[in-house]
Structures are given as C-alpha cells and as structure tokens.
Design goal:
This protein is an alpha+beta fold. The chain has 11 helices and 17 strands. The strands form 2 sheets. The protein has a 9-stranded mixed beta sheet with strand order 10-13-12-11-15-14-9-17-16. An 8-stranded mixed beta sheet has the order 1-7-6-5-2-3-4-8, with helices on both faces.
C-alpha cells in the first residue's frame, strides 16, 4: 500500500527524521534532491544522517543534486562536499546568469524537494526548509511525504502526481548546468569577494544574537563567521592543562566563535560540551577535538596534542583554521608577517576583532 508521513519542526518530526524513514523502507535505488541553497551545516547534517542510515549501500546509490547560486546563499564548501559524495552529480540552475549578475537570478530557484526511489515505492518529500541546518532540523518548518507503490494496488491520482514530480525534476535537471571544478572556482571567487563576506545575505542558519554582554559579537559578525573559510587567532599564553612541564592544548576563544566551526549561536550553560570539530595539523591525519563553552565565558577548543599530531607548542603562536569541508578544518601556524596579511584581509570585511586581553583574531 502507499504511505504518507509529515514534517513538523522543530518537534516532533524533522525533515531529517522523515527522510530517514523513507530510506528505511526497502532498498534505495536512487536519490534526487532539488533545493534553493545548501549551507555547510545542512550538508554536514544531511550527509551524515543519510550515510549512517544506508550504511555500505550509500556508496552505490545514484544521487543527483540541483541547487543554485542565487544571492550567494549556497556555500562553496558545501558544494565541494556534494561533488565528493560517491556516485553523485551536481547541477546548478541558471548558473552563468547568476555569475554574470553578481548572484542575482533571472528567475529564483526555490524548491525544497527530495525524490527517493526504493524497490517498493516512489517517494516525494516536499517541505518548506532548504538544505540548511535550520531547514533540516532546527527551524520551524512543515511538509508532507507521499510514497506511491511501484507495483500492486496504486491510487491513479497519486501515481500521476508522482510521475509529474519526477518529470519536473528531469526537465529541471536537463536544463541545469553541470557543476565542474572550473564553475565552482568561479562561484567561489564571487562568494568570497570582500563585498559578499562583508555583508553576506542571511540564510536560515543565521539567527539573531541574544548575547548583549559587553563586547558581544553582533548578528552581522556571526553571519561573517558562518560564511568565511578562514579563522585566525593570536593564541596567547595557553593554560598548562596537561601538567606544569608540558605545553597546553586548550585554546580559549571569544564566546560564539563556535559559529565558525559550524555550531549554532544559541546560548549554552557554562562547561557545556558544544560538539566535536575535526582538525588536522599541516595536512596530517584529521581527528575529532572537543569544543566547550567554558566557565570563564569563552569557547574552549582542544587542539592536536603538541609534539604528537600538533606543533611543539601553541603558546604565543598565530593559528589559522581553514575550512576544507563541512565540519573539517586544517590548522596551520603563521608568522608575524602572515598574521599581518590575515589582519588586513579581515579588516577589509569588518571581520577583525580584539579580545579584552588584547589578543587579536578574525575571519576572512
């Protein structure tokens, strides 16, 4: 028989919950997704949930993704991650027109549609949320899922509607532009232009800051943290957390620096574990490291152990984190001259900051 499900976010049933329910109904033959834009947080959450649900089958399932460059809301890092998904193809709606017009579309691309074919049914998930962290699980969203039998008794109107949805996707797919490394590089140049990073167009993952304390980051600051690919900081004197004779590896950062690392700007109790961040040092093997909101009202990030995956010490070094894909960062150490260049790039987009202690940091 046919099936139906619903989306009612943020509770009791999210878009990710509904999608997982589809994937657990039989053997998945294909996944087609059309969304207005994709953020790093959304790509990270969806790819993790779907790959965990499908297990080894995830690799062989054909996947097609259609999105847009509209208003520079889609993050280049998120697109790169989709390109690297096994058995995936990515296309962009009216790509060249958007590039030629600074991200402004001729006709806005605005669907939020997931089409999944299993050996039992054809599914359509149509909701209100984009492929953002908010759209998939955290924001107030609603939607419906319909599954139509592939064989056996079917409802004619439901079957006809499903065929029309799949025909729409095929038409949209055929008219879209294949995302190549060159096209992605051209879009990245537009996205990372100083004008866009200085005043990024908000997405569903950008929420107003409720932190009104002295020196708090503004909502615009947090938007810059989300979209920028680079985060640098003067490490200062690192606490001897590993013992009095050993160099420490706990970096104290401005509160809500966590937004750069992919976490929400919502308030958290002191000594709360925010999440784990995958970090590699100088291109080495990456590993998860803890990010905590400390009782000193700062975000505390554990770094690779000095001398065993990290540098000999972090004290008074200039650290640069570069986002390589959603949730994954490469850490390097820069010279004083390099820090001056980072500061210049950050200053150009109003992304340079100084903590009460005098330590400088920024994004670009």
């Amino acid at each position: 028989m046919s099936r139906a499900d619903y989306i009612a976010q943020p509770a009791p049933r999210t878009t990710l919950d509904a999608l997982q329910g589809i994937l657990q109904d039989g053997t998945v033959d294909s996944i087609d997704v059309a969304v207005a834009y994709v953020t790093s947080g959304g790509a990270y959450d969806l790819l993790n949930r779907v790959s965990q649900t499908l297990g080894n089958a995830w690799i062989s399932v054909p996947k097609r993704w259609i999105t847009s460059f509209d208003y520079c809301r889609t993050e280049p890092v998120a697109l790169a991650s989709l390109l690297k998904v096994p058995n995936s193809s990515v296309r962009i709606h009216d790509a060249q027109f958007c590039l030629d017009h600074g991200g402004a579309p001729k006709v806005p691309f605005h669907p939020k549609t997931f089409l999944v074919r299993t050996d039992l049914r054809d599914y359509a998930l149509a909701g209100s949320g984009n492929m953002s962290r908010s759209g998939l699980s955290r924001g107030v969203e609603a939607g419906l899922v319909v599954g139509v039998n592939r064989a056996g008794p079917t409802e004619p109107t439901a079957s006809a509607a499903m065929q029309s949805m799949r025909a729409w996707f095929s038409t949209t797919w055929n008219s879209a532009t294949r995302l190549t490394p060159t096209l992605l590089a051209n879009y990245s140049q537009l996205f990372e232009h100083k004008d866009n990073l200085k005043a990024p167009v908000p997405t569903e993952d950008d929420v107003a800051s409720t932190d009104t304390g002295r020196g708090a980051l503004s909502t615009k600051d947090l938007q810059r943290l989300r979209v920028c690919r680079h985060f640098w900081i003067d490490a200062g004197n690192i606490t001897k957390n590993r013992g009095p004779s050993l160099p420490g590896n706990q970096l104290m950062m401005k509160r809500l620096s966590r937004v750069f690392f992919g976490f929400a700007s919502t308030a958290a109790p002191e000594n709360t574990h925010i999440g784990d961040v995958e970090i590699s040092f100088n291109g080495g093997q990456g590993a998860p490291f803890s990010l905590t909101y400390s009782d000193n009202k700062m975000d505390k990030l554990v770094l690779p152990i000095p001398g065993a995956g990290g540098p000999l010490a972090y004290d008074n070094e200039y650290l640069l984190f570069r986002r390589t894909k959603p949730g994954v960062f490469e850490l390097t150490i820069g010279t004083k001259a390099a820090k001056a260049q980072w500061l210049k790039k950050s200053g150009a987009i109003d992304g340079a900051f100084r903590m009460a202690s005098g330590r400088e940091w920024g994004v670009f």
